[in-house]
Backbone:
């Protein structure tokens, strides 16, 4: 025994093995904890699958060496297993665990209403989400969110290397960054407040402090959409950078970031990629096309009538991505210079054509995953655009403070984490890539 800050560390604790390290313990006896995932009884032995925090490990029960009755084990019981690691060429891992002893830590009170230990949870999306605390225990379901973790890790690593500072901005705000009716109102000690639609105002303010900032955090949209692409609470990956010369610098930064993410996933998350059979995109550059040119191209190539001249229809996004992939091989495409009418009041208008903004969307496999662009950074220009839109600048006094006291040219973006995850994994519904979805029909679990 040895003492660490008054806590006794036992030999048992020090021998606790992780599933990812078992190949290093062949011939040794180890202890592992986890859940009994599945029991497959054979004639004179049984396969016991143990679900650890990242892997599912195959154990062998046999009366020849197991010092406990098989009946002691129950699926979804939490157990501490003592086992010998044996080399086994027929196993895909190259080893198997001979169960010697087991301590049952807890047992479930009821059987799961959903079968979770098959390759896929074969149920409706409603049941999948209604029983989320249980269905997430499925090996593939939880792998989705392990990959999502990997995306966030990679983004953080990349942005730190690019000298961005991570910030944490308020989610209860006095005014909406995007405006409009899609904003959740709440009573804040007698005053009207809102849930943040975006960290936009604050990340712009912090450009004046740190120059380059980012945040990975929830945002809230009170949109009454019930579609496969919309959520009322989602995770936004935001970054903002100052002293830019063009909004294209933001697009270049995102391209580098996404390349880093794909490389990181290949190196660190091969296990989950293989399990989910994910095909990651390979690219060096991402093609860009202006908004009106993209609209005209889709209309011409697919013989479609152009109806909405100010925004993309979801079907147009899919067709444009299909066309770009055929012509360039890229599954990503930037669409630039969106109409000013469809962009927020802080978007900088083009000097050549004030009807267009220096902004962009990034489309991936048929879906918009990012919106970004250059912001207005001078006080007179920002106030003028607010007044032109019928807004009251005095209502945005704290936001305009940064403009009044000096800001550099800057811009940034917001990327939807769940949308990117869904498209990487080939999901048509963003809810499959959302841990606990919040939409117009769902507030629990």
Residues:
């Amino acid at each position: 025994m040895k003492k660490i800050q008054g806590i006794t560390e036992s030999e048992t604790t020090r021998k606790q093995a992780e599933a990812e390290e078992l190949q290093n313990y062949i011939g040794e006896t180890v202890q592992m904890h986890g859940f009994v995932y599945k029991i497959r009884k054979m004639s004179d032995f049984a396969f016991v699958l143990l679900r650890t925090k990242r892997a599912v490990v195959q154990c062998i029960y046999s009366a020849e060496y197991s010092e406990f009755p098989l009946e002691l084990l129950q699926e979804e019981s939490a157990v501490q297993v003592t086992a010998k690691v044996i080399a086994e060429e027929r196993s895909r891992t190259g080893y198997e665990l001979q169960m010697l002893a087991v301590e049952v830590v807890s047992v479930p009170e009821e059987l799961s209403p959903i079968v979770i230990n098959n390759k896929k949870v074969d149920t409706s999306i409603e049941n999948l989400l209604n029983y989320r605390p249980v269905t997430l225990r499925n090996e593939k379901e939880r792998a989705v969110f392990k990959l999502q973790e990997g995306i966030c890790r990679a983004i953080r690593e990349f942005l730190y290397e690019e000298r961005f500072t991570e910030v944490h901005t308020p989610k209860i705000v006095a005014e909406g960054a995007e405006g409009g009716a899609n904003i959740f109102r709440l009573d804040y000690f007698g005053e009207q407040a809102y849930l943040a639609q975006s960290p936009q105002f604050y990340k712009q303010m912090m450009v004046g402090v740190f120059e380059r900032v980012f945040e990975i955090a929830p945002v809230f949209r009170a949109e009454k959409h019930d579609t496969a692409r919309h959520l009322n609470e989602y995770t936004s990956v935001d970054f903002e950078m100052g002293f830019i010369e063009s909004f294209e610098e933001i697009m270049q930064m995102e391209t580098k970031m996404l390349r880093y993410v794909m490389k990181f996933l290949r190196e660190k998350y091969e296990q989950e990629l293989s399990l989910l059979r994910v095909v990651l995109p390979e690219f060096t550059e991402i093609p860009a096309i202006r908004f009106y040119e993209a609209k005209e191209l889709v209309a011409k190539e697919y013989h479609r009538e152009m109806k909405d001249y100010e925004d993309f229809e979801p079907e147009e996004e899919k067709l444009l991505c299909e066309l770009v992939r055929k012509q360039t091989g890229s599954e990503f495409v930037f669409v630039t210079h969106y109409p000013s009418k469809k962009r927020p009041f802080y978007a900088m208008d083009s000097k050549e054509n004030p009807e267009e903004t220096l902004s962009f969307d990034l489309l991936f496999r048929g879906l918009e995953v990012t919106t970004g662009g250059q912001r207005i950074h001078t006080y007179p220009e920002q106030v003028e655009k607010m007044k032109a839109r019928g807004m009251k600048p005095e209502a945005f006094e704290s936001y305009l403070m940064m403009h009044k006291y000096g800001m550099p040219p800057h811009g940034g973006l917001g990327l939807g984490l769940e949308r990117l995850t869904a498209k990487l994994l080939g999901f048509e519904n963003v809810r499959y890539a959302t841990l606990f979805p919040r939409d117009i029909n769902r507030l629990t679990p």
In short: The longest strand covers residues 29-41. The first helix runs from residue 11 to 14. The radius of gyration is 26 Å. Confidence is low (pLDDT under 50) at residues 6-14.
